[in-house]
Amino acid sequence: MYMSKRWFVIHTYSGYENKVKANLEKRIESMNMEDKIFRILVPMEDEVELKDGKKKVTKRKIFPGYVLVEMIMTDDSWYVVRNTPGVTGFVGSGAKPIPLDEAEARQIIRTMGMEEPRAKVDFNAGEQVRVISGPFENFGGVIEEILLDKSKLRVLISMFGRETPVELDYNQVEKLK
């Protein structure tokens, strides 16, 4: 199926999101799936409420009835998640779970105030790279700058006889050997 870790959305009985998270965490441990199933999130956000002139901050589920699971999709990992009590299924078309778009997953995590761990940067300024996805696919370039705060690279791509700076995600380029 998918050999890299991606975020998937599972549907649960409404109100059972935290119970599903706890059950799934126990199952991952008891079935030795730590190498396939990584993080489980119940997307929450702070909601500020004014009561009797006082601010009260409560956590509110952003998507009631849904839980996010970061996993490598295999038959085994699918089975463990799918058969967890409270899980009614994966979100996707038919029987095939569809992973969340990387940008969507990052946005949800940011909304929760849980920045994901910074990606380890294995690039250096001045290195030759080839773009492997996006509108500049198959173009070659040189890394001009590593933008750690944005988790991006500024790459000078040679187009129409001149260098054009383009911002790309780490996973959009590969080093040239």
Tell me the strand order in the biggest sheet.
12-11-10-9-13
Portion of residues in helices?
10-25%
Order of helices and strands: EHEEEEHEEEHEEEEE
Tell me the number of helical segments per DSSP (H or I, 4 or more residues long). Answer: 3
Q: Give a quick account of the main beta sheet: strands, pairing sense, barrel closure.
A: 5 strands, antiparallel
How would you characterize this protein structure?
With 177 residues, this protein is of the alpha+beta class. The chain folds into 2 domains: 6-111, NusG, N-terminal domain (Alpha-Beta Plaits, 2-Layer Sandwich); 128-175, SH3 type barrels, CATH 2.30.30. The chain is 18% helix and 41% strand. It contains 3 helices and 13 strands; from the N terminus they run βαββββαβββαβββββ. The strands form 4 sheets. Strands 12-11-10-9-13 form a 5-stranded antiparallel β-sheet, with no helix packed on it. Strands 2-5-1-6 form a 4-stranded antiparallel β-sheet, covered by helices on one side. Strand 9 and strand 10 (140-147) form a beta hairpin. It is globular, with a radius of gyration of 20 Å. The chain starts with 5 loop residues before the first strand and ends with a strand. The mean pLDDT is 86.
Structure characteristics:
177 residues, alpha+beta, Alpha-Beta Plaits, SH3 type barrels, five-stranded antiparallel sheet, four-stranded antiparallel sheet, globular
